[in-house]
Design a protein that fits this description.
single chain; 128 residues; alpha+beta; Nuclear Transport Factor 2, Chain: A; six-stranded mixed β-sheet; 2 helices; globular
């Protein structure tokens, strides 16, 4: 019985950590403040962006690529609309409304997490 209680506690902790990352990501994209979630980027993050940028990047490179992207595609609105807290592959899908050169556009955003050194980290960010 005790083992089951520990497993439930661990699963709950996982969900809290995953939800925290999703929340920080949502706030960071919404405000254009990559610092809100940059400490949650995995050592090699896959990024694919609306502007054609697509590759694996170090967490430091990812920070600057996302920062540059959001300076050109200025967020007007961002909201995660679907989250999956699966133990194996948590992910979320969101809607981004942005302004680029005064023209309003819309993109779908996909974020996936992966365990790295027993902590959940952002492994993929796709904005298209």
């Amino acid at each position: 019985m005790l083992f089951g209680a520990e497993f439930t506690f661990s699963q709950s902790d996982n969900n809290k950590q995953i939800n925290k990352i999703f929340s920080e990501f949502e706030n960071g994209i919404r405000t254009g403040a990559i610092k809100e979630f940059s400490n949650n980027l995995i050592s090699e993050t896959y990024i694919s962006l609306e502007n054609g940028e697509s590759s694996y990047y170090s967490s430091n490179q990812s920070f600057y690529i996302l920062k540059d992207f959001l300076q050109n595609y200025k967020p007007i609105f961002f909201k995660l609309i679907n989250t999956n807290l699966s133990e194996e592959k948590p992910f979320a899908i969101g809607k981004l409304i942005y302004s680029k050169n005064g023209i309003r556009g819309e993109s779908q955003v996909f974020i996936a997490l992966k365990l790295e050194a027993e902590n959940w980290k952002i492994s993929q960010i796709i904005i298209n």
